[in-house]
Amino acid sequence: MPESVPPADIAGLSLTEIATLVAERKLPPVEKWNPTHCGHSDMRIASDGTWFHQGSPIGRPAMVRLFATILRREADGSHVLVTPVEKLTIDVEDAAFVAVELKTEGAGETRSMAFRLNTDELVVADADHPLRIVQGEDGPRPYLAVRGGLEALIARPVYYELINLAIDEGAEPIGLWSGGRFFPLDGGE
């Protein structure tokens, strides 16, 4: 399936341009496909977002982007690669994606935030794509909802960028608005 890949750097795009790219993206209807489970794919997504097949990293970004379009999270929390004729389990160590870049416009309640994932997919934080913070042993672990139960771990530098924006705005509790919704960044709800 041909797919236009957004620029590698979203800094030069406006959020209007990003929203247009997001709206134009067509993904396969994996939620409608229910083939018989065929086994394990011998693939895994490491916690740093690296995709592996039979223990070796997949070095072709286009191949990773292709596999990401057929990735689905099942009701039991497992992950599968699904086509109309087969379904294969894939191991995911943490989140299926990593949010590696942030683009923000506006301030306060009028702010909008877009994230570029390690697969070059763009996601705008809003009610359908909320941020959440999980408190872990190593500190807060921020996540962004991507689609169908799939999430992106927000890379530590991007999380620090979010925290700095919230501190600069003096948000109480600490957090940011995007898409008309407030997202706490301290793990509170």
TrEMBL record:
Domain of life: Bacteria
Coiled-coil parts of chain: none
Signal sequence, renumbered to the chain: none
Domain DUF1285: 28-95, 96-185
Any Pfam family hit: DUF1285_N
Alphabetical list of Gene3D superfamilies matching this protein: duf1285 like domain (3.10.540.10), duf1285 protein (2.30.270.10)
UniProt cross-references to InterPro entries, sorted A to Z: DUF1285, DUF1285_beta_roll_sf, DUF1285_C, DUF1285_N
Protein name per the record: DUF1285 domain-containing protein
Organism listed in the record: Sphingomonas montanisoli
